[in-house]
Design goal:
Distance between the termini: 7 Å
Number of helices: 1
Number of domains: 1
Radius of gyration: 12 Å
Structural class: mainly alpha
Largest sheet: none
Number of strands: 0
Helix content: 10-25%
Length: 56
C-alpha cells in the first residue's frame, strides 16, 4: 500500500481540521522515507476509542 493512500484514509476518518485547538502542531504521523508501506503500528492515548477501520 502506498503511503499517500494511508494518509488519505486516515484523514477521511479523522480530518485534521477537526483537531482540537490544544492539538495544534501535534497531529500527524511518524514516517519513514519509503513510499511502500508493509506494516503499521498504531497507539491511541485516549480512553475513548472509535470503531477502527483496517487499512492494511
Amino acid at each position: 500500500m502506498k503511503l499517500t493512500e494511508i494518509v488519505h484514509t486516515l484523514e477521511e476518518i479523522a480530518p485534521p481540521e477537526l483537531a482540537d485547538d490544544f492539538d495544534t502542531g501535534r497531529i500527524g504521523l511518524i514516517l519513514g522515507l519509503e513510499d511502500d508501506v508493509n506494516r503499521i503500528a498504531a497507539v491511541s492515548y485516549t480512553h475513548l476509542t472509535l470503531p477502527t477501520k483496517r487499512i492494511v
